[in-house]
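To whoever is on call:

I kicked off a structure prediction for a single chain this morning and the downstream step that reads the tokens threw a length-mismatch warning. I double-checked the sequence; it's 318 residues and nothing unusual in it as far as I can see. Pasting both halves so you can look.
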Amino acid sequence: MTNAKSVKSLKNVANVANVLNTESVKSMANVTNVKSVKSVNSAANVTNVKSPKSGNVGDANLKSFGVKHQPFASSLQGAVSNPKFQRTISIILTGVISFPIAMIMTRSIVMATAISTVALVLPIEMSRLSYSKRLKLEREAWPVAIDHLISAVGSGISLNQAIYDLADRGPDILTPQFQEIKRSLQGDTPFQVALREGKRGFRTSAADQVLEVLIIARITGSSNVGNILRTLGEFLRQENAMRAEVEARHGWVRSSASLAAIAPWVLLVILSAQPTTRAAFTSVTGLYILIAGVGMTAIAYIWMNLVGRLPEVPRALY
């Protein structure tokens, strides 16, 4: 009996050992399978991450799929629309065009070079006048925009809707930038961030003042924003009227200075039709006179711009 019991106990122990071995083997297989799946997934993820970086070959096939290379196109468009780039191109074109014309009229390389050098001032002056005109239009548009905001706040609509109305029916000079602010607000950008980023597109301090008033009104919930905007609008109208009066009084002085700087060169072009004039300015003494004339014209132009420039209100809230 003792032997039978011992045999049965040994069989039970063997069965338990077999069960434990099978379970351990299964668990090890499961762990191995899990690790292998994880390793395969990580390898796939690494491949997916690395493939866009190393997949420059796909860029060559963009045209076959009808996809444009947007970064290059956007950078090229930004460079072309840059005012500095446009001014540089206009200066180069002015020099290229003015030199042959001056060469035909004067028949002298020295005189044509001097005249074409002075002609490079024309695109710079035109760019300055265009920028001044844009600043003037923007300064005059802000009181109108403030009137729109006052009427919108008085009617009880939200500040977001007031900006949307300005983007759709505001002054033309301010509409593009308010369209950018509108798109930012519709894209779930916070009100303060959208307005402070939108200030960068404007060129006058009035934009900083108006937009900061709207930001403060949004934060504090002030009901006095209409009176503040009305006071700011009256102040801006008075400032614009005073600036227009000063520009009207000093505009003739600047025009006279510009005419005095250009007149000698116009006279030189007229006198260059005579052979004696060409012979005089092609000599060494004539060359020194032309160089001195170009230098004095440049100094007079810079001095005229410094004296005739009206100071702008600093953008302290930019």
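Update from on-call: the warning came from a stale cache, not from the record. Cleared it. Sanity check on the structure: Residues 132-250 form one domain.
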